[in-house]
Amino acid sequence: MLGFLRKLFAGLGTPKPAGPPKRIATIDAHTNLISESAAWEDGNLRVTASSAETVRLFELPLNNLDQCMLGLRFRMSSTDVIGGVVPEIWVGVEGFGEAFSKGLNFRLQGTNDWTSCELPFYLRGGQKAQHLKMNLVFEGAGTVNLREIELHSTPLE
User: Fold this and answer.
1) Residue 138, number of CB atoms within 10 A of its CB
2) 7 lies in some domain
3) What is the dihedral sign for C-alpha 17, 21, 24, 26?
4) Does residue 78 form part of some domain?
């Protein structure tokens, strides 16, 4: 029985890096924003929600990246967030559809100073990433600021 379970879950662990991370995109004031609730102010991406909602921020095309860890790195602060806010990314994978990575460990509530965040997404060999979307999931009203937003790719064994 134990051997069966090992085979069943083999390869489901976190893959090991095979090289250093490489920055593949920087999200800044030149990036097209999707939501009218988001705007660039003094180098920060300011996102305001008036109630519980998911705010789509941007979508980046990806050039069939595979066998890597995508890491969306950013700094985030909040002001008067009711309930909480959680960042998430959605990655479109050729032949599969979309899958997500949710930053539950970066959930902010109330007013918070800047904190560093990274949302990982693992792609195995043959899983080709087509695009990446970033959202903020608000559980209530509030304001979030983002800055130093970068997408990195780390090759995997």
Assistant:
1) 26
2) no
3) positive
4) yes
Q: What are phi and psi of 19, to 5 degrees?
A: 175, 175
Partners of 11 in beta bridges = none
Q: What is the pTM of this model?
A: 0.88
Residue 139 contacts residue 52 (beta carbons within 8 Å) = yes
38 is in which domain, residue-wise?
Answer: 18-155
Please give the span between the terminal C-alpha atoms of the chain, in angstroms, as a whole number.
29
Residue 119 is part of a domain; what is its CATH number?
2.60.120.260
State the Cα–Cα distance between residues 154 and 141, nearest whole angstrom: 35
Q: How far apart are CA 136 and CA 123, in angstroms?
A: 22
In a domain, 6, yes or no: no
Cα separation, 142 vs 111, in Å, equals 9
Question: Into how many domains does the chain fold?
Answer: 1
Q: What is the DSSP letter of 17?
A: B
The residue assigned the tokens 């460990």 is 105
Which pair of tokens denotes residue 143? Answer: 């304001």
Name the DSSP class of 156: B
What are the pLDDT digits (tens) for 37-80? 999 999 999 999 999 999 999 999 999 899 999 999 999 999 99
